[in-house]
Amino acid sequence: MSDDNQDNQFIKSKTETLSDVLCSSNNFIIPAYQRPYEWGEKEINGLTNTIYAKFCDYLENEENVQFLMFGILQFGKSENGSLSIIDGHQRITTFYILKSILAEKLGEENNLPKVMNQINNADIVNVINDKSINYGKNKELLDKFVSGIDKKNLKSLQEFIDEKILFVSIFVSEKSSISTLLEIFDSINTTGLKLDVKDIFKIKFCDYICKNSSDKNSTLKKINDAYQQVNSLKENYAIDENTLLDTFRFYLISKTDKSGDYLRMSNNKFFFDEKGFFNLPLPEKLVDVDLLKVFQDISACIVETQNYLMNNRDNSSGNLINGCSRELLGISGYGNLKNMYFYLVFIQCINGKKIDDTVIDNAVIDNTVIDNTVIDNTVIDDTVIDDTVIDNAEKLTELLWQYCSLYSASYSRIVYRVFTNIKEIYFSENNNPCNNIEEVKDGLIKTLEKENFDFVGFKNVLDKSVFDNRTKNLFLSLSYIDDCKSTNETIYNVKNTIFYSSNQEPKKALDIEHILSHSLYSDNEYVDSLGNLMFLERTINRQLGAKTKNLNEVNKQKDIETKLEFYKKSTLQSVENFLNNYDKNYNIEDYIADRNIAKTEFLKNLYGDFYTVIEKRS
Hints:
The protein is an alpha/beta fold. The chain has 25 helices and 13 strands.
């Protein structure tokens, strides 16, 4: 189709049909910085449903059927005419597979363009049948869709998608940097999703460390490989690229003189702001450091840590509080520090040694071997991550979430000072926190003793076990863990029950259950206390709500009896614990009061010296 906009040497656009885009004369490249082909069943079903609805109209009256727009495509156009896919990778790949299926069923030659993946130099034609990855899985879904079309209409379907599906294609000269190409995409993409910080980081980081080097593809591949390593852990405690960027950011902060305010920054602001890391000269302490190597090593460390937890540590019913320290920090009110956990593991792996040309346990990193394991291939031997390393990281992270929650529970407005204190104590140039955990604890306590702040909110939690929504999830999670202490529940089961199950299985999502309901016990002083609250599966909670919604004060006993029956359906340890300890001959309000006293004592003991300091301030 003809150009819709004026032509110039830097950027041009035109409207194209699918047959224009996927004509055999095109030569596509999937750049190394692109994410892999990630579309799954949801996206494929959405696409085929849209196509099918319009195709049915087309069969009835093809002359009057409107075009079906599938958005903007953006390409970087090289001097040899090849097109780097900047935006549209998922759609182009999916339509490529769909067209190949139609050609096969119609017995036609597959006249499709060459689509090369820059990461592995593989042509898409060689992977679309691989059922172990999304290419093959989606081909099965698309084949099922095509097979559902009457054979006599297959040619019409092919003509429909070729000529009625439209895109606006934008072509940008690749004489400019990759960063510039993506900035243009971001400015054009005003109605769609903005570029993700994880995607922008790859390009900016590559530009930052390559400078004038021509070997950017190799660097991008290494960055992408580091991403893919941690991305493979998505099902294990929601580890992803953000975990990697967070940990890298904490490492960089440890090598600069930046204030504690940098700890509270988002990755976007820290790296890309006008005065962000990539827009300023390299700090002196990092001049001789191979940052790409550090990035790869952090990725390897995260993977090895998670594998160690999954295969060893979390299969036990050890210290559940310590085992959930990272997750508890995430809901402490200072969740942007959550991945300090991995930073604390990482600095133990390189404790006191430079990373660039360095020795760890008499093994040179550059070349690099740790206990006979090469780090260049981003593998850290199992012997580097052990119980001692994990213990240290967990204990330091526990101190961190406890300290943060003191302020969060009290609605502190002195956020800057909190981060400054953490920066000074956890990122001290001359003191690795893992070497002296008691010293870290003493440092945190000293800041509390100097604090001109009453911590009244936190005292209300520990004195009365009454709190507000800001930290309710934290203290309720602690209560659940407390209920599991006398059982054989593993760290893995506890983590997945209260922190991750709803992400993997929506039907396992949890609600907060008031044992004494607000509507019937509004005058009870413990109705909003920890003694009256526990987690309950959402499905059970909703069934229970429907069953008891019309009960009034006359029916209080009926309300409790109904709840007890529904609680028996729960598989949660806290609910089982409640049922085991509650005697039906016991007045329910007295039991809740006693349960609350027990929970309050549990919290006081847990916070230990922190509680003592706050109590002295009363």
